[in-house]
From TrEMBL:
Active site: 95 (charge relay system), 137 (charge relay system)
GO molecular function (one): oxygen binding
Binding site for heme b: 85
Requisite cofactors: heme b; FAD
Gene designation per UniProt: hmp
EC number: 1.14.12.17
Name by which UniProt lists this protein: Flavohemoprotein
CDD domains, A to Z: flavohem_like_fad_nad_binding, Yhb1-globin-like
Keywords: Detoxification, FAD, Flavoprotein, Heme, Iron, Metal-binding, NAD, NADP, Oxidoreductase, Oxygen transport, Transport
Chain sites annotated for binding FAD: 206-209, 382-385
NCBIfam families for the chain: PRK13289.1 (NF009805)
Family per record: In the C-terminal section; belongs to the flavoprotein pyridine nucleotide cytochrome reductase family. Belongs to the globin family. Two-domain flavohemoproteins subfamily.
């Protein structure tokens, strides 16, 4: 338990964390990697380069300060972050290292304003928060490895098939090298793939959604080739160009909380843009196999037809379902998912799952809110660190 004095001091720092949080976390990561470059084997270099990880951490630290007297309020966020950590192989021994450099960054950025009382209060608070993460993540590790075929940290997999789904998305089918059975997973979950790229000093990790319903045969990830972005595209370009059938990669066990609620029978709408289609395919196929009478809508946006994956798969699945609607729109033809499209195709009396670029999700979720959907009906996930969406007040 934190003392009231510690709580008061930490809460008093919330305003400055709101305004200077990203400055603090930028210094934190710079100092962390200077002292522990081996951690670059874990962190996503692209998110670092683009500032997304710094912003996400600043938001988390600020939320912790605001809710330090009621940490239960941030447990959902801790669980979401914990899923990412477990998928990357974060260990308890990493937390003291992070704490040391986070406190150092606060002191470096705030200077004389970071009094001993403030640093000591944050050290105490960080200990409590870190223990919450460690405890929740250990439960996740135990859950993952206790499943039949489950494991902890990374495991070798063989690429057994490689299929081009569109001009920029290719699927990789993967099986365990050790021949063990595959663990089941929730539709919408992701894995981390770890690769060594020739000429690069550190390992690279990327998280990709499992893009088909769970079965005992293979995992499938469907990767967009990000060849116009640097360093974002290093892993995707390597996978597309250099990883082939028979090659070995390392994977973590499935993780993630953006999943289809398979207990429900109410209508479901899957709303995605670009490569955001990948978790939706897993959810949609799961319903087609297990709940073919459940009302479903699949709404998708791509730049053009050549960049549209899984179109034939979706149409084939629809033929097996009692009440399924499907529409695909292409921005190159100036066809967009408008409120009128959502009004026609989305299921107002059910859950909506949204995934795609940040701007796409902002527009889609605001459209849904304006159409009368409740926040409880709308489920969404970012690819990468969680950022703030600009959503209308309801």
């Amino acid at each position: 338990m934190l003392s009231q004095q510690t709580i008061d001091i930490v809460k008093s720092t919330a305003p400055i964390l709101e305004t200077r949080g990203t400055e603090i976390t930028t210094v934190f990561y710079k100092d962390l990697f200077a002292a522990h470059p081996e951690l670059l084997n874990i962190f996503n270099h692209a998110n670092q380069a683009k500032g997304r990880q710094q912003t996400a951490l600043a938001n988390t630290v600020y939320a912790a300060a605001v809710h330090i007297d009621n940490l239960a309020a941030i447990i959902p966020a801790v669980k979401q972050i914990g899923q990412k950590h477990v998928s990357l192989g974060i260990k308890p021994e990493h937390y003291p290292i992070v704490g040391e450099h986070l406190l150092g960054a606060i002191k470096e950025v705030l200077g004389d304003a970071a009094t001993d009382d403030i640093i000591n209060a944050w050290a105490e608070a960080y200990g409590v928060i870190a223990n919450a993460f460690i405890g929740i993540e250990e439960e996740m590790y135990v859950s993952a490895e206790s499943k039949e075929g489950g494991w902890r940290f990374f495991k070798d997999f063989t690429v057994v098939d490689k299929v081009k789904e569109s001009d920029n998305i290719t699927s990789f089918y993967l099986i365990p090298v050790d021949g063990e059975i595959l663990p089941t997973y929730e539709p919408g979950q992701f894995i981390t793939i770890r690769v060594s790229i020739p000429g690069e000093k550190y390992l690279f990790n990327r998280q990709y959604s499992l893009s088909k319903a769970a079965d005992s045969e293979t995992f499938r990830i469907s990767v967009k080739k990000e060849d116009e972005n640097n360093p974002e595209g290093k892993v995707s370009v390597h996978l597309h160009n250099n990883v082939n059938i028979g090659d070995t990669v390392e994977l973590t066990a499935p993780a993630g909380e953006f999943v289809l609620d398979q207990e429900k029978t109410n209508p479901a709408t899957f709303l995605s843009g670009g490569v955001g289609i990948t978790p939706m395919i897993s959810m949609f196929e799961t319903i087609a196999k297990n709940q073919p009478s459940r009302p479903v809508s699949f709404i998708y946006s791509a730049h053009n037809e050549n960049l549209h994956p899984f179109d034939k798969d979706i149409r084939t699945l629809i033929e097996t379902m009692d009440d399924a609607k499907y529409v695909a729109l292409y921005s190159e033809s100036e066809d967009f998912i408008s409120k009128d499209v959502l009004k026609e195709y989305a299921r107002i009396d059910g859950d909506v799952y949204v995934c795609g670029p940040v701007g796409f999700m902002e527009v889609m979720i605001n459209h849904l809110l304006e159409l009368g959907y409740s926040t409880e009906q709308i489920h969404y996930e970012f690819f990468g660190p969680a950022l703030q969406l600009e959503l209308m007040e309801v």
